UniProtKB/TrEMBL annotation:
Protein name, per record: LydA holin phage, holin superfamily III
Organism field: Gemmobacter megaterium
Keyword Membrane appears in the UniProt entry: yes
Regions that span the bilayer: 13-31
Domain of life the protein comes from: Bacteria
Pfam families found in the cross-reference section: Phage_holin_3_3 (PF16083)
Keywords: Membrane, Transmembrane, Transmembrane helix
C-alpha cells in the first residue's frame, strides 16, 4: 500500500478551505456558542433573543485579541485558533479576571 500523506487535521483543513480569518471567526463563534449553551442550560438566557446580536462584536474583538497574542508568542496556527475559541468562551470579563488572577500570582 502506498504511503498516504498525513491527515492535516480539522483546523488546517478549514484554514485551507476558507482562509485563516474565517477560521478565527468560526473558532470565536464556537467559543461563544459553548458559553451561550451553558447559560441556556442554566436558564439564565433564552435560546434565541436579540441579545445574541451583541455576541458578534465580542467574537470579532476576542478573535483579534487571540490572533494578536498567538502571533506575539509565535504559536502554531492550531494553538492560536484554540486560544481564540477559549478567549471567546471567557469573554472580556472572564479573560480580564483570568489575567488579573495570573498577574496577582506573579507579583
Amino acid at each position: 500500500m502506498a504511503d498516504l500523506p498525513p491527515d492535516p487535521g480539522l483546523i488546517e483543513t478549514i484554514n485551507r478551505a476558507i482562509g485563516g480569518a474565517a477560521t478565527a471567526l468560526i473558532a470565536g463563534f464556537a467559543g461563544r456558542a459553548m458559553y451561550h449553551a451553558g447559560e441556556v442550560r442554566a436558564k439564565r438566557r433564552p435560546i434565541l433573543s436579540w441579545d445574541l446580536l451583541w455576541e458578534a462584536p465580542l467574537v470579532l474583538g476576542m478573535a483579534m485579541i487571540g490572533d494578536s497574542v498567538g502571533v506575539y508568542f509565535a504559536f502554531p496556527r492550531e494553538v492560536t485558533v484554540g486560544l481564540i475559541a477559549f478567549l471567546a468562551y471567557l469573554g472580556p470579563r472572564g479573560a480580564g479576571a483570568a489575567l488579573e488572577r495570573w498577574a496577582s500570582r506573579k507579583g
